[in-house]
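ok posting inputs for the oxa(dethia)-CoA job
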Amino acid sequence: MFSRILGTGAYLPQRELGNKELSLMVDTSDEWIVSRTGIYSRHIAAADEATSDLAFHASRQAIDNSRIDPASIDLVIVATTTPDLVFPSTACILQDKLGIHNHGGAFDIQAVCSGFVYALSVADSFIHSGMHRTILVVGAEVMSRIVDWTDRSNCILFGDGAGAMILQASDEEGIIGCHIHADGRYVAQLCVPAGVSRNPDINAKLSMEGSSVFRMAVNTLDEIVDETLAASGMQKSDINWLVPHQANIRIIQATAKKLGMSMDQVIVTVGSHGNTSAASIPMAFHEGVSQGRIKQGDIVLMEAFGGGFTWGSVLLRR
Ligand code: UT7
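and the output
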């Protein structure tokens, strides 16, 4: 039994925040941001838009593209670092917004930028086990709420958005393999240093040691490429598309180089989306599919690295 992708969707908030406008807010420049990150713009959610609202629009599109009845969705998984509420989960809120009242399961996954890869690996396991048949998997973030808009080294990086995917049990090959990893020794390098049970502070903001996270990301993604290829018995040349987490164009270029891939085989959205954490891979995948670049039967490698540290990959046949 395989997990096949039936359809995808994505949603970006209307407001775009370009580098020029950012350079009026903090001491930075379009030239610095583009050359160090590849980002020239990002989308910012409206004050009354929460993560579940972004997730709703992306999910509706994925459901329409899949041509399924929402009532057939027997599990909703939302990967997010910016949930609507402490509880209940954003997945429960989304389930209600979508009008899915069939008593299927719903829960959130927290693995920061690796969240979507984690969520796909969990969904794939549920389908393999026969426990669920049709799963809505979403990555959705309103990172703008946890960014310190006075910290020039971080605020230039992040954006808001949501991507969604419908997975269904099938005899045909879909997800080929998933790998997830974590190393909790690095919590302090990338975190929001406050929460519910420790240091409660509703105004706490994201903190990141950018350069060391950058180095760890490049090295770790190198290793995950080797691990994924070895486990699947595939060669680098078997992979048609790389759909990476979109943190920094230089990290993406390093992984493409490792795979011997030209940048024409990489779906890149970081320029216009910035880093949307768990939403970046499903939005990029949706873009690749809807532009007709990723075709039925293509082999796709997704990979991500983020806070925790967490990292992982998903290899699939479209
Ligand atoms: O998604 C989860 C994983 N996250 C990531 O993978 C992000 C990883 N990190 C990065 O993408 C990069 O490290 C950054 C883009 C955050 C920073 O790029 P960098 O090449 O590592 O720059 P840096 O932090 O070493 O800073 C270089 C210089 C510093 O000035 P000095 O000390 O050399 O005088 C910074 O103060 O650039 C300065 N700087 C800025 N200048 C203009 C830092 N931020 C800015 C800015 N505008 N926005």
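notes: The longest strand covers residues 160-170. The first helix runs from residue 19 to 22.
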